[in-house]
Amino acid sequence: MTEQSETPKILDEISKSNASKASSRSTRKQQTTRRRFAVVTIILLPIVAGVLFLAYQQISLQSKLAEFELENQRLNQSLATQSTQLRQIERAQLATPEPIEFDDSSVRELESALSEEIDRLTAQLADLQAAQLLTNNATDRAWKILEGQYLVGIANQKLMLEGDVVTAISQLEIADQALLDSGSSSVFAVRQAIAGDLQKLRNIEVLDREGIYLRLDSLLAEMENIDLLNTMRTEFENRRNAESQPLQLGSDANSLLESSFEFLGSIFVWREWEETPEAMLAPGQDDLIKQNLRLMLEQAQLALLMRDNSLYQQAMAKSQDWFQRYAVTNSIQGQALKTELNQLRAIDIDPLLPVLSQSLSLINQLAASER
């Protein structure tokens, strides 16, 4: 009995489980179907949107084409109308016009009056242009003459203050060209005076001040190595001490006299002086003598830079005097230095230069007449 009562329960449970399984299968199928529909919908949406957009573009293009066709028709109609009007105008132009009679005497009088006025204004303009040209020429001529006056003044200053012959020649040449460019007929006398001054300046030998300065500088360096008389005397004494031998008196009187002369010759050095020296050198005065010679040459250099010929000649004369008095002049070095001193002393560092007074006077008069 117990087994029979449990059988329905088991069957009921089996049926329930089968029903639940069937319902779960149907639910899964529904979910799968929904998913597939969603995927298809997502894929179809862009396609549908693209198709709709293309349809919209097609409709828009068709409307625009219709508008263009209408506009083209209007333009064709306008062109046809204009062509018709042009043909009408051409036919009207080809038709013989009817002569129109009018009185042109007033027009002729007006043309004559205008022609006379134009001729008068043309003549007045030509007069004004000629006057302007004359004014410009006069102004240019005056400026060129003033330029020449200024350049001649500069050349004179270069000569008087600096002794610069090269620059003075250059300025005078430019001044002469300016006077030539002025085109004035009154510049002949001035140009003649300038030509004379140029000839004088070109005949002057240009002084090489830099070369003279370098020669003096070379002498300054040589003064350190000159031989002084005191040095020569010391050398003679040293040689005498080295070569002297004890004096042996013999019985022969002649041999005694000869020995005495030899002894005196070994002590004294005979030298022919051009003039009597004022003082003999004391031992240790070599540096002082050389220093004084350098100072004299430096003074000559300073005078060269100052263009002071008097001071230059004094310094060179003192240098020569001291060199003759205290230095050894019979050696090769002494002769070369003596010759160089003589040549430098013979140079006039401030030569007499021509004065441009005539050129200045004439060009000043010419410039005053142009004002």
Descriptive keywords:
mainly alpha; membrane; Four Helix Bundle (Hemerythrin (Met), subunit A); 371 residues
Structure in words:
Keywords: Coiled coil, Membrane, Transmembrane, Transmembrane helix. Pfam families: HemX. The structure is a single chain. The longest helix has 93 residues. The relative contact order is 0.08. The protein has 11 helices and no strands. Among the domains are: 104 residues, Four Helix Bundle (Hemerythrin (Met), subunit A) (Up-down Bundle), CATH 1.20.120; 125 residues, no CATH class. The radius of gyration is 64 Å and the shape is flat. 80% of the residues lie in helices and 0% in strands. About 7% of the residues have low confidence. With 371 residues, it is mainly α. Helix 4 packs antiparallel against helix 11.
Strand content: under 5%
Shape type: flat
In total, how many beta strands?
Answer: 0
- Uncertain parts: 231-240, 242-251, 274-279
Total count of helical runs of at least 4 residues: 11
Mean pLDDT: 77
Q: Could you say which structural class the secondary elements and strand pairing correspond to?
A: mainly alpha
Distance between the termini: 165 Å
Helix percentage: over 70%
How do the SSEs run, as a string of H and E?
HHHHHHHHHHH
Major sheet: none
Radius of gyration, rounded? 64 Å
Coiled coil: 58-131
Region (Disordered): 1-30
Pfam family, one: HemX
Biased composition (Low complexity): 16-25
